[in-house]
Fold this sequence. Notes:
Helix content is 45%, strand content 22%. It is an alpha/beta fold.
Amino acid sequence: MSKNPAPLAFDLKSLEVFLAVCDTGTMSAAARALGMTQPAVSQSIAELEQSLGFKLLDRDVRPLAVTVPGGLLRQRASALIAEARQIAPMLRQTERGKLPIIRVGLVDSLTRSLTVPLANYLASIADEVSILSGLTALHAGELLTRRLDLFLGVDDLETWTGLERWEFAKEPYCLLLKEGTKAPRTVADLKKLAAAQALIRFSARSQTGLHIDAHMRRLDLTPPRTMEFDNPYSVTAMVAEGRGFAITTPLCVKESALPGAGVVMAKLPGPQVSRALTLVARHRELGRIPRDLSDLARQTLADVLGQPPMARKISA
C-alpha cells in the first residue's frame, strides 16, 4: 500500500506574501501592497522559513535580499502563483464548451505527418493550441511537471502510474541505404555492411536511438560511433550524402522530406523489431480527448504504414 504524501510545507497565500516581499524589498511595502499589517507579513515569512527549514531572506541588507534557497523558491513560487491565478478564468471559459489552452508534445518523426490534422482538431476544442516538437524524453519530463497536457511519441514512462496510454501505430525498423548499395539479406551480410560503411546513428538521447543500439547489441554488432543525430532529417541526409547507412523507420524517412535523395529502404535482416507510437496523458484529466486524438493519429498514419493497428488503451 502506498504511503500518504507528506503535507505541504506552505500554502499559496504564504508564497504570495513571500513574493511580495521579494518584489518590494521590505516587509512594510509588501504589507501595503497586500493590504496586510507588517507584523502579519513578518509572521508569515517566519512561519514559511520554519516549515521549510531554510532561511529565505537576508535581513542584514536593505532592501532585503533573497538567499540561495530563497532565490530557488522565488523562481518556483512565481510559476505556481501565475498558474493558480489562471484557474478561475479557465474554469469560466469552460462554460463556453472549449478548453482555454491545450499543450501537446509531438516527437520529431511525426511532425510532418500529424501537425496539420492535430492542430485542426485541437483548434476545435481549445482557444489556444500549443504543439511542441522534439525528443520524447523532453516531452515526458514536461508532462510530469504539467508543462504539457499530453504527448505523442515513443513512450518511456511505462513505470509511472497515474497516466493513460493509447497506442496508435506500430512500425518496423528498417535499413536506409544509398541507392545502388546491395541490401544485406542475412545478419552476416549486415555485419559485412557495417564493416564497410559507417552506421549513421540516431542519438542515444532519443528512444529510437536507444532501441536501435539495443538491437545492434543483440545482433553482436558494435560499429564505431562516428556520426549521430537527434532528428530524422539529418540521418537521412547523411545517408543520401553517401556517408554510410542507417537503421530507421518509414515515418522517420517520411519526416526527412528528401524527395529524390537517392536513398532506398530495405528490410532489416534477422529478428524483426518495431517501435510502438503512443499517446500519453494524465489519467482522466482530458475526458475523451486522448482517445479521439489517438484515433485521429491512427487514421492519418494509415496510408504511410500500410497496416494501421487498432488504436487501443494499453494502460491507465
